[in-house]
């Protein structure tokens, strides 16, 4: 019997992801805390708060995005059994976008009230949809080489046919990627419209248990 080195445990990915999410969420708060001297020495705290409202909007947007990502990450991750190079790198590139989100939020906050707002919204849009692009790009070679099989193994207690779910999730990732590309293009011409699309996308991702449940039911009804 040929022995081979097994890939890393999914628990290692979970540990790293929790740490990266924690740091990214903390970095969001630093921008807000840094406003305290400006607010307290302005002579008009309420007026200064209004002036820096984009910073608070950026903080709340960034927090909701990161926390919903973390939530979905563990809702699906708890059912994944084992890992392979594709899974590890998909998760790795997701964490890349997690780490970039504080930058995107800071850019959004600094430019929202200026003529350069399209650039802040552009960077925010790229970071919001970036994980879908990298997931598709990293997964595609493995899917092609395996004859269409998405290389993810689900635990026995997941209530759905694994291969059907894998293919459906990959298609969903592809559709999200297309929405992201369209939104990026829109952000250069109609930045407020693009920000609205981002807001709707964020709202739809805030309840991942319900979201995954809808996927499960839709696939069961398609049998």
Summarize the structure.
This protein has 223 residues and is mainly α. The chain is 78% helix and 0% strand.
What order do the helices and strands come in, and which of them pair?
Elements: H1 10-33, H2 36-40, H3 45-51, H4 53-77, H5 85-111, H6 117-145, H7 162-189, H8 191-204, H9 208-221
Description:
The chain has 223 residues and is mostly helical. The protein has one domain (10-221). It contains nine helices and no strands. It has helices spanning 10-33, 36-40, 45-51, 53-77, 85-111, 117-145, 162-189, 191-204, 208-221. The longest helix is centred in the middle third of the chain and has 29 residues, at 117-145. The chain is elongated. The model has no long low-confidence stretch (mean pLDDT 82).
């Amino acid at each position: 019997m040929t022995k081979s080195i097994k890939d890393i445990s999914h628990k290692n990915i979970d540990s790293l992801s929790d740490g990266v999410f924690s740091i990214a969420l903390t970095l969001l708060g630093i921008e807000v805390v840094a406003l305290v001297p400006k607010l307290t020495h302005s002579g008009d705290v309420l007026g200064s708060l209004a002036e820096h409202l984009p910073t608070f909007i950026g903080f709340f947007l960034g927090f909701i995005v990161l926390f919903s990502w973390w939530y979905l990450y563990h809702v699906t991750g708890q059912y994944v059994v084992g890992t392979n190079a594709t899974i590890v790198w998909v998760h790795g590139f997701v964490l890349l976008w997690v780490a970039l989100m504080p930058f995107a939020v800071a850019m959004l906050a600094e430019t929202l009230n200026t003529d350069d707002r399209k650039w802040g919204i552009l960077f925010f849009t790229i970071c919001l949809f970036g994980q879908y692009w990298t997931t598709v790009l990293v997964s595609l070679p493995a899917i092609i080489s395996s004859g269409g099989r998405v290389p993810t193994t689900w635990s026995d207690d997941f209530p759905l046919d694994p291969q059907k779910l894998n293919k459906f999730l990959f298609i969903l990732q592809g559709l999200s990627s297309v929405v992201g590309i369209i939104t990026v293009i829109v952000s250069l011409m109609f930045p407020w419209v693009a920000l609205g699309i981002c807001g709707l996308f964020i709202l739809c991702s805030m309840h991942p248990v319900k979201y995954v449940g809808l996927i499960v039911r839709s696939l069961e009804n398609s049998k």
